[in-house]
Amino acid sequence: MDIRHLQYFMEVVRLGSFTRAAEALFITQPTISKTIRALEEELGAALFNRVGRSIELTDAGRVIEQQAQNIVKSFESLSSQLDDLRNLKSGHLRIGLPPMIGSRFFPRIIGQFHQLYPNVTIQLFEDGGKKVENDVVSGALDIGVAVLPVSDQVLEYFSFREEKLNLLVPVMHPLAGRQQVELIELAEDSFIIFREDFTLHGRIIDSCIRAGFQPKIIYESSQWDLISEMVSAGLGIALLPETICAQINQQKLHIVPDVQPAIPWQLGMIWHRERYLSFAAREWLRFTREQMQK
User: Fold this and answer.
1) What keywords is this UniProt entry annotated with (predicted)?
2) Which domains does the chain have, with CATH numbers?
3) What is the pLDDT, as a whole number, of residue 253?
């Protein structure tokens, strides 16, 4: 058994598929299947139950998963620390970004970071804030961007943007033309909101409930531009951050800037406080904090 066997095993567990794990590792499926089979033969136990196209861990597999997580993390930490000692100033970063955030804040910063550290590669993962937060906790991501506050106590963060949600309504909506609206006035409207894996999903629902009503949700999406287009088409209303609203064509809809009570939207860069941070990760945090403060 070597560390590669455990890394392949953990990737299969994470993705729930031999095919997807092979694609993520840039190897063939027969290679990963052969590696897992060799690991099972060496341990003398089946690690996966294969039911049709789906797989699940056996009891032995769950035991190996618990131990393999610690072994792989320790190996990756050792490799990172040795790289730092050699002062290679190279590495690989896995960064999670909610889709509506990445295009607005990070292309310029990523470009400037690449100029400083051309040997550091960056892999971006676009997911909702909740999944980004969970993946940073699990170690699947090195760094993430999430809506604050974060729920897990093992996460460190710094805030780089704070604003509030605006209301989007169709041009023929009774509230079109208003500059302020009370949240309770939306009780009879149909809502178009982000999917459940986005932090704003729960935040909007909770705010409506505190205001005295359960919002009627007709559609959920991961794309802010699709949400705004659906509002323009008269299908419902939406609540989006100020930064996003500034990019929306307002010819077909109206934006109410002042919603009371206000729903805050605070963005932060997050990382695991107990996990070793590589040179690349430390430099990314230092550089982005500096750039965001400007």
Assistant:
1) DNA-binding, Transcription, Transcription regulation
2) 3-85 (1.10.10.10), 91-160+267-293 (3.40.190.10), 162-265 (3.40.190.290)
3) 94
